[in-house]
């Protein structure tokens, strides 16, 4: 159930504009946009709507969905399609029946009449709500922070969520991939020209046999935004800073998983799974052969809070986000849920802070020239450093004890 129980995943959506709604207005708009259980006319192939988020059939919106300035709810996406095997069975049954009752009819006429009966039956059954597949995705809308978090595993789901938010809540959303995030950040700092000038960094020479120039193409890091490759550079920069022991306000280290792909598109992919995949010989060889991290398991810590997750750098989308075990068992279910919502929002803010710190360095040409040179030397030196870096899980302060729940 994502934000309510277990591990969570999300795509980050920037809220470009949102109306000022009272609680009553918000609940009314959400309630008016639930998915109908049946239809007076044939439903579309897909239909989206809101739900309370406790389960797929939850149609209740009330104060239990509110957590301060955050709204926890659900996004439901239903698809209607008659199974091909069932359509074929109906067709054959109808043809057999018509052949028996109308022996003088031609085969083409029988097939046409049988198909019309199948279409009519399919419409009737779909109108009643049959032949639908339904999915629910948890949604956490941080109204104060101007972001909405929701797992959207496909382009179709992302488009449906954006359209639903606009049509029902007058909410303008934009999926924030690494490049979109960078563009928004650059615009806020007056650095759009610097972003436009940014090209993939050659952290080493092209792989042997490569004939595409001296700058990596990173074709897989160019969509939907041409600067999505910055998400992969971010993971590589984070990797280097962690192993070199660079101190940052938000600390991070790679753990458990590391997926890499050739930035020059001259080699294949590699996926590594271990407690310390970034320190494996395979990872070091991958770096020297021009592979960049696309996804990485991370342990991040900020103050007294810490999380583990897998980050898709290009999409800037975390998956399998795990909260620490609570120091004390919450007294009520609501208390535990409040702590979870706070912890997931804090995780999103920590990731965003890490990435903004990288973008500050990356979009400063002189600074990045110096820092990228450090990364290049680190790669050549097999990551050897006089200091190693491990995240020490922070100890709870007396004031925060019991406030973190999972």
Topology:
Elements: E1 11-17, H1 23-31, E2 46-51, E3 66-67, E4 70-80, H2 84-101, H3 107-127, E5 132-142, E6 147-150, H4 155-169, E7 172-175, H5 178-189, H6 192-197, H7 229-244, E8 251-262, E9 269-274, H8 281-288, E10 291-302, E11 305-312, E12 317-322, H9 333-362, H10 365-380
Q: Estimate the mean pLDDT confidence.
A: 91
- What is the count of helical runs? 10
Oligomerization state of this entry?
Answer: single chain
- Number of discrete domains: 3
Query: What distance separates the N and C termini?
Result: 12 Å
Radius of gyration from CA coordinates: 26 Å
Tally the beta strands. Answer: 12
Tell me about the largest β-sheet: 7 strands, antiparallel
How would you describe the shape?
globular
DSSP helix fraction: 25-40%
Contiguous runs where pLDDT drops below 50 for at least 5 residues: 385-406
Q: Write the element-wise H/E pattern from the N-terminal end onward.
A: EHEEEHHEEHEHHHEEHEEEHH
Q: What structural class do you assign from the helix and strand content? A: alpha+beta
Strand content is 15-25%
What brief labels describe this structure?
single chain, 406 residues, alpha+beta, 3 domains, seven-stranded antiparallel beta sheet, five-stranded antiparallel beta sheet, 12 strands, 37% helix, globular, disordered C terminus
